[in-house]
Amino acid sequence: MRKHYKKLGITVIPVLLIAAFYFIFSGSYSTPKSLINIANHEKHRGVCWVGSSREVAEAEIIALVAKNINWISQTPFGWQTGYDNPEVTGNHSRGEQNGWWGERDEGLKITTKYAKENGIKTILKPHIWLRDQEGKWRGEIKMKTEEDWQKWFSDYEGFMLHYAQVAEDAQMEMLCIGTELHQTCIDREEDWRKLIAKIRTIYSGPLTYAANFSDEYQDVKFWDALDYIGVQGYFPLTDKENPTVEDLRKGWAKPLKDLEAFSIQYNKPILFTEVGYKSTKDAGIDPWEWPQRINAEEREKIFSEETQANAYQALFDEVMDEPWFAGVHIWKWYPNYTNSRNSSEFNIDFTPQQKQAEQVIIDSFSKFK
Known about the structure:
Blueprint: H1 2-25, E1 44-49, H2 58-65, E2 71-74, E3 77-81, E4 89-90, H3 105-117, E5 121-124, E6 127-131, H4 146-169, E7 174-179, H5 182-187, H6 189-200, E8 207-212, H7 216-219, E9 228-232, H8 245-250, H9 253-266, E10 270-275, H10 296-302, H11 305-318, E11 325-333, H12 356-366
Parallel strand pairs: 1-2, 1-11, 2-5, 3-6, 5-7, 7-8, 8-9, 9-10, 10-11
Antiparallel strand pairs: 3-4
Helix pairs in contact: 4-6, 11-12
């Protein structure tokens, strides 16, 4: 019997080794794949709708339908002076609201009504506008004392709960609970979780948070409490000016790998709450940088509709049909653009309107209807 077992062992061990090698080097032991599979027609074909200074006509929303757009985001603002100032002010705290019509409650609700009547859904996406003398941005908001942190979150809670009620009253289809508040997410995770719980007592729709592409989305720990992982998708794609579509497609390789792994980690779809490119030769290098305020002659030297169009083509070629990817909101889209100051000659602004990129977007969106 001993000889029999010895002989059996000699036979079985190589078989087990072969099986182990098979699983290691075959698809059976490959990187986990996402279980999320969003149908193409359900993806956000969205634009970041710029709040207008005057009342918007329904015709301006109807025009979006012909461009295959099915979502808009609307952005009211809260105001903060100083990165360490705990006071957040805005229309949410005023009895009589002022400022631009499209950012007031009335404008947000009427715009949503027009959108609904034309088959377009809405994300309400409030932002903090930081005016800081030291040049810091909202991702660096950080209080110096516990008392100030409590005050900041109390003010921010008032801000967000107001807009949660606006979103619920208007039956908006999604609410974004914050945008690029990186340091607050690192320092105060529990405060964010408490806020999310309070928002859910008011707003019944899905929630997301808009995290910056650069480290922030990976640093946020409360994604499990939300429905979508929101990313401001301004990933650098090249180090070249005037890149080809193929150059820019290659630039998506690492971001896509990281995003898919992150989606799998939380079992949540990823939504680009913003993505956009300037119409400049270097648009793919640092897409997040705001265009310079320069005269027409200087703008002409750096202007490139083709680079902007190529960047959008690469985005749609590489990202849009990933099954775990929920879609895009393109920064940014002006109502009544023809009469806008942004429609000037050699306009290097982010908007793709009346540029080559607009047709790329229209054609690409049509494939996801």
